[in-house]
Every structure is written in structure tokens, then in C-alpha cells.
Amino acid sequence: MAPEIAIIGGGPCGLTLARLLECKGLDYVVYERDESENSTRTGGSLDIHPETGQRALQEGGLFEAFQNYARYDDTVLTLADKSGKRILQMGQGRDAPEIDRRELRQILLDAIPKDKIRWGHTLKAATLGEDSRPVLNFANGVVESGYKLVVGTDGAWSKVRSLVSQSTPKYTGRSYLESRISRENPYYPTMADKAGAGMFMTVGSRKLIVTQRQGDGSYRTYFGLEVPENFFKDGGIDIQNLETARSTLLSTFFADWSDEYKDLIRHSTDPRAWPLYSLSAEGLEWKSAPGVTLAGDAAHLAIPNGDGVNLAMTDALDLATKIAEYGIGSVDQAVREYEADMFPRGAETIRDGQMMAKIMFSEDPQPFVDLMTSFEAGAE
Ligand SMILES: Cc1cc2nc3c(=O)[nH]c(=O)nc-3n(C[C@H](O)[C@H](O)[C@H](O)COP(=O)(O)OP(=O)(O)OC[C@H]3O[C@@H](n4cnc5c(N)ncnc54)[C@H](O)[C@@H]3O)c2cc1C
């Protein structure tokens, strides 16, 4: 017999949901496309907020494990202009500690029985069976059905989404080019001196450079560019060729930025493209369908605004709480109530992402300084 709940995608949302269902004694299985928990795909550092991500970890009994990794000294944000002048520093002591995505995933995986996760299961398509309930077709040929609930937590390009919604992510006109400065990099001591702890961000000429210290002390940098959707695929910056990629960044995008940034580009390694996509806040809602829902980025993909993972974990917490409250026999009612709460916050984060992107890709850093200062004043 199939488990009662199928979770598609073992990212922060899916694994948090799995952990919370485990705590509540509910029956579930997670399908994840990665081949194993040792997959080498990693991601950046995430700040976990008290009322959302931290609360979900607390409910899952994982706050102590989280504290073993939480970096409270990396909450600081330093803002500069393209001449290298430091304009603002804030965020010291903020209750939003950083954790690497890989570490967060490990904490969650360690708290879920191994046989509850089916690795190497890439969902190819979700269809509706004769009973109007979801049928899961995996790329490895496995076909599964018979769940009381299927939850799509499979991120931006969710294959579950089409069961409830016609929405698809649209390109936002902006992309990040990610790169690394490892501890072995000859530029590392200079980088550590100039960027320090937390996030070092520079805004100007409708571009940005965001550098973030990671758990191992290395740095991850995102160069934010306004470029066409397929710019990297079409070779606008050839990320397969490090020297060419560096020289295009230097000559075409950051030619009039100070030497500090040019040195960073000259030493950056491991380029990776992140075209930024978003769902639309308008029409985000769908008519609740029996036996299926979405959570996290699958439900409300936004331009990264520092809240994505926190909202994904909040969705997981709310959904698990509702399912436990109503019981698996009334799971569709639980889903309806979860969705009614989730839709407005999903639409809000999409709008926030759009607003933040507009301000971060400004001609000069002042609008971003004003926004950050207003956040800080609001937090007092
Ligand atoms: C460049 C960048 C920087 C970001 N920085 C931040 C930040 O600083 N703070 C923050 O809060 N958020 C940040 N975000 C957003 C954040 O990463 C997401 O909001 C968050 O990861 C959403 O979690 P999720 O579990 O819903 O989806 P995901 O993290 O996308 O996880 C989806 C999971 O599903 C699996 N999967 C996908 N497709 C399938 C399939 N077909 N079949 C089976 N499994 C599948 C994937 O392998 C993955 O494990 C950033 C995003 C980007 C792109």
C-alpha cells in the first residue's frame, strides 16, 4: 500500500515537511531527484529568521542541532558603492543566523528515517488518474499513485504545479553569475580583509556584486546583471572558459568599477549562471484540488529576497500542523485552510522580490541604503 502522503522534492521545504510529519506520526515518503544524500550540488548561505525558519526547526525538535551550525557573526551587511566607498554597515547581532544550505539539509536528513526518502526519483510528469487523484510518473520508469495527498515541493520548475495551476515562472530580466573565492585562493587574505564577515554588497550602474562568507570561511560572489534570458546559454559570457568569462565581466560590465572589484573578478573561480525567474503575484491562487498541493518555491517562486527558504519552511510547518489537526481522513480540508493562508504571503514575497530587485539594480546605492535603514528602524 502507498504511504498516505507523497512529498516531491527534498529541498528545505520538502525535508522540513517530512520531519514535521515524522514528529506527528503521519505516514509519508519523499521522492528526490538527487542520486543520494552525498550529491555534490551545493548552494549558498541562508539566514534563518525567528518567526519562520527557526520556528519550523523548533517544532521539529531541531533547534539545538541548528545551533551547532548557526553563524551569528555573519548577520552583518556592509554596503558600498562602485568606487569601493563603504556607505553603511548594519545587522550586527540580528537574530537571523546564517547556515550553509548543505548543513541545513544534513540536519533535516539526519532526523528522517533513511527508508522514507527515495533518491534518484526525478518526477517527469504528474497526471490525474481515473479517480481524479494524482499519478506520479518518474524518469526512471517508476509510476506511483494511491496517495491521500501529493505535495509538490520540487522548487522553481515544479512538475506537480500543472495539476493545480497554469502559472509558469517568467524570466525577470536579471541574472546572477555566481563565483567562488576558496580559502586556498591567493586572493583570499585580501578578500577576507575587504569583505569580512556576513554579506558585502555593492550597488551601482544597474548592476550589483554580492559577496557572502560561507560556513567554511570561503566566499561566494554573485554578479547581478541585466541581460537577456538566454545570455549565458548563448555565450554572452562563456562560463565554460574562466579567462574569457573574467575578461567579459571586466571589459563589458565592470570596466568603470574600482580596482578592488576588478581584482575580485580576476581571482574568481567556478562560474555558474542563475537566471532569475519569478511567478506572478497576480493569479497565484488556484482552486483547491483533491489530493494535491504545492509548497515553497513550487507555490510562490520569487526573485531572491532573503526570505525564500524561511517561507518554504513556514509552508511546511503550516501544512503539517493543519494535516495533524484535521487528520488524514480530512486532508483536503486541511489543504484548503493551508492554501488560504499561504496564497497571500506567497503573493507578498513575490512583490517584495520585485521591489527589492528594482532597488538593488539602481543607478546608485541610495535607494537601497534608504530601504535597509527603514528595515532597521522598523526592527527597533
Ligand atoms: C542564487 C540564489 C540565491 C538565494 N539566496 C537566498 C537567501 O539568501 N535566502 C533565502 O531565504 N533564500 C534564498 N534563495 C531562495 C531559496 O533558495 C529558495 O526559496 C528555497 O530553496 C526554496 O526551497 P524549496 O524546498 O521550496 O525549493 P528548492 O530549494 O528548489 O528544493 C527543491 C528540491 O526538489 C528537488 N527537485 C526538483 N525537481 C524535481 C523533480 N522533478 N523530481 C524530484 N525532485 C525534484 C530538487 O533537487 C531540490 O532538492 C536563493 C535562490 C537563488 C536562486
TrEMBL record:
InterPro entries: FAD-bd (IPR002938), FAD/NAD-bd_sf (IPR036188)
One GO molecular-function entry: monooxygenase activity
Annotated FAD-binding domain residues: 5-168, 291-346
Protein name: FAD-binding domain-containing protein
Pfam family for this entry, one: FAD_binding_3
Alphabetical keyword list: FAD, Flavoprotein, Monooxygenase, Oxidoreductase
Annotated Gene3D superfamilies: FAD/NAD(P)-binding domain
